[in-house]
Amino acid sequence: MKLIILVIALVISLQSQASLIISPAIFEGCRGDYPNNLTVNVYNQGNETIAVEVEVFNLSQNIKGLVQLSPVEKPILRPETDRFKVPAKAKVGFNFKIEDPNKAVYQAVVFKKTGAQKGIVSQGMVILFMLALDQETVNGKICDLSLVTSEDFQHKFLRLTVENEGLCHFKTEGVFELLDQKGTRREVVLLDGGIVLPGAKREFRGEVLTEIKKSSLVKGEVFFNLATNSHSCNIELQSLEAFERLQSVKWN
């Protein structure tokens, strides 16, 4: 059975004088394009051997799109070992096995220096696995569309909140047209794109550069994509007055 695979590796420095690098950083495609064991190469560029512990976590996401990790009881993704060493100036291949190819996998593998407190992953090497069964249907919903300002009132944004009601992740993209009351297009606003995990809500924004009024009109289209599995939602032409009251928000 094919799986759509997207593996993103985020590297944060270990508490060590030596530095570790992983390669490749991204695996993307269909399950059939890869063997049952996925391999990353771990390079130690330092002058000392590094002993590493391996832990698997469940993967989730907050409304800003930041990844959150939580303990997992039965990992679907199985590392070949829970401890390994990388000699100085050397490369080590490390394998991951998919235990059940009939289930989606949204988990993370964390490499951390031996002796670090269990469960602490603020420093280490994190590999995120987002594996969706390709027969799943992308199911995204628009929860909110509003006009907001930055805290210093110097910038305006269209803010879109999307909810993933399905069992597979997808990438969200959006484009909106701002028009005056006569229907003349004033500006095209592109939303920042990004992935939304199953069960998550995520906000996206696009900066508005022209001076607009609450009586201005807006229309747009939002896309939810995963490989060839995708759908879109249309925002029909309407007044910005239909959106919630202009509010001040902080974007970190």
Topology, please?
Layout: E1 3-11, E2 20-23, E3 26-30, E4 37-44, E5 50-61, E6 67-71, E7 77-79, E8 83-86, E9 90-98, E10 105-113, E11 125-133, E12 140-149, E13 156-164, E14 170-179, E15 185-190, E16 194-196, E17 201-208, E18 217-226, E19 229-239, E20 247-248
Parallel strand pairs: 12-20
Antiparallel strand pairs: 1-3, 1-11, 2-4, 4-9, 5-6, 5-8, 5-10, 7-9, 10-11, 12-13, 13-17, 14-15, 14-16, 14-18, 18-19
* Structure summary, number of beta strands: 20
Q: Would you identify the CATH H-level superfamily of the largest domain?
A: Immunoglobulins
Question: Can you identify the CATH class of the largest domain?
Answer: Mainly Beta
Low-confidence sequence ranges: 8-18, 245-252
- Compute the CA-based radius of gyration: 22 Å
Mean pLDDT: 80
The name of the CATH architecture of the largest domain is: Sandwich
Structurally, how many domains make up the residues? 2
CATH topology of the largest domain: Immunoglobulin-like
How many DSSP H or I helices? 0
Helix content: under 10%
Measured distance between first and last alpha carbons: 41 Å
Structural class: mainly beta
Residue share in β-strands: over 45%
3D shape? elongated
Describe the biggest sheet? 7 strands, antiparallel
* Order of helical and strand elements: EEEEEEEEEEEEEEEEEEEE
What labels describe this entry?
Immunoglobulin-like; five-stranded antiparallel beta sheet; 0% helix; 2 domains; mainly beta; single chain
Molecular structure report:
With 252 residues, this protein is mainly beta. The chain folds into 2 domains: 3-133, Immunoglobulins (Immunoglobulin-like), CATH 2.60.40.10; 140-248, Immunoglobulin-like. 0% of the residues lie in helices and 58% in strands. The protein is built from no helices and 20 strands. It has strands at residues 3-11, 20-23, 26-30, 37-44, 50-61, 67-71, 77-79, 83-86, 90-98, 105-113, 125-133, 140-149, 156-164, 170-179, 185-190, 194-196, 201-208, 217-226, 229-239, 247-248. The strands form 4 sheets. Strands 1, 3, 5, 6, 8, 10 and 11 form a 7-stranded antiparallel sheet that branches. Strands 14, 15, 16, 18 and 19 form a 5-stranded antiparallel sheet that branches. The protein has a 4-stranded antiparallel sheet with strand order 2-4-9-7, with no helix packed on it. The radius of gyration is 22 Å and the shape is elongated.
